[in-house]
Amino acid sequence: MTRNEFDLIRDYFARQPVSRRDVALGIGDDCAITQVPEGCQLAITTDTMVEGTHFLATASASDVAHKALASNLSDLAAMGAMPAWCSLALTLPEPDEAWVAGFCQGFSALAEYFQVQLIGGDTTRGPKSITMTLHGHVPHGKALTRDGAKPGDWLYVTGTLGDSQAGLNYVLGKPVTDEARAATLINRHYRAQPRVAAGQALRGIASAAIDISDGLVADIQHILKASGVGASIDVTQLPLSEALLADVDSYETAQKLALTSGEEYELCFTVPEMYRGTLETTLKHTGVTAACIGQINGSQSLQLMADGNPLDWTLSGWDHFKELDSDRS
Ligand code: ADP
Ligand code: MG
């Protein structure tokens, strides 16, 4: 491979749809130079996606780009940060122009929507992988963290849960019976909409927050552990989409999917009683729904409930929780 072929790929990335005023120097020099707004702190997050591990070789380049950026945007959303700048390390087995063109198309669409500017990166040869770093701003001291949940706080999730896993099941070969429904769920898997506006709206309201990337019961443990608290979840309050309910053989299957489905990129957060009213009015402005699914308590464990009765369901994320539970006692 000649250097020129790599230059060609860099050319794709040099054509940026977003041009921010706080970028003094973007792609093209040895470093990018940016200006953090007065009174703000930087929030920085990185995700790596390796072909065969984090995405299938059959996934379209555009979907892969969307997922890479969406997962980083979701991390910023969970901190209440406003996205700004992105850098991209791309490793490709060969300089595949068609793949790069598709990748740039998927990236640019989402980047434009959230006004994220690609300010640099690196392009190397090797097994296909994508490492993306996203920078955002958050007013000084106002970031949402995982360690602020208190007994009595209410537990919420945005959107609906379980759809991403249901979509992945089709990607992995589940027979399609209803084309439109399968398409809806596959779209939920590949094209998650990170809750960026909702995350910022939660500043000053939520006592703790996290985004759901490994599944609700797996991710909520991070809040419980960091905050030194426990929680109960009422599974009858889990928000389920019509598509998911139509897709499963029983209500319980849908509830279990909602508890364990990863890559949902919804937010899970806790709210003190006194801010519940503010939460409702604030979220209305963002157009995002949030469901109250339970409450934080002082028990140091997670309990699933249905109509006031404890459940003893076995879930993949549940076992993991028991490990975490034992190493903190
Ligand atoms: P250097 O040798 O100084 O690291 P490169 O030749 O690797 O420079 O890159 C030239 C310019 O292109 C740099 O500004 C770099 O940030 C940018 N760049 C390279 N690859 C990418 C990429 N995949 N995405 C965005 N910018 C990139
Ligand atoms: Mg380089």
Question: What would your notes on this structure say?
Answer:
- The protein is α+β, with helices and mostly antiparallel strands and 329 residues long.
- The protein has helices spanning 3-14, 61-78, 97-114, 163-171, 179-190, 196-201, 216-227, 242-247, 251-260, 276-286, 316-328; strands spanning 23-25, 33-34, 40-50, 82-92, 117-125, 129-139, 154-158, 208-211, 230-234, 267-271, 290-297, 302-306, 309-310.
- The strands form three sheets. The chain has a seven-stranded mixed β-sheet with strand order 8-10-7-11-9-12-13, sandwiched between helices. A four-stranded mixed β-sheet has the order 3-6-4-5.
- Mean pLDDT is 92; it is low at 319-329.
- Adenosine-5'-diphosphate binds at residues 10, 13, 27-30, 88, 90, 118, 120-123.
- Adenosine-5'-diphosphate binds next to helix 1, strand 4 and strand 5.
- Substrate binds at residues 54, 263, 318.
- Mg(2+) 4 binds at residues 30, 45, 75.
Q: Topology of this protein?
A:
Elements: H1 3-14, E1 23-25, E2 33-34, E3 40-50, H2 61-78, E4 82-92, H3 97-114, E5 117-125, E6 129-139, E7 154-158, H4 163-171, H5 179-190, H6 196-201, E8 208-211, H7 216-227, E9 230-234, H8 242-247, H9 251-260, E10 267-271, H10 276-286, E11 290-297, E12 302-306, E13 309-310, H11 316-328
Parallel strand pairs: 4-5, 9-12
Antiparallel strand pairs: 1-2, 3-6, 4-6, 7-10, 7-11, 8-10, 9-11, 12-13
Helix pairs in contact: 1-3, 2-3, 4-5, 7-11
Bound molecules: adenosine-5'-diphosphate (ADP) and magnesium ion (MG).
Domain PurM-like N-terminal: 28-136
GO molecular function, one term: thiamine-phosphate kinase activity
Binding site for Mg(2+) 3: 30, 75, 211
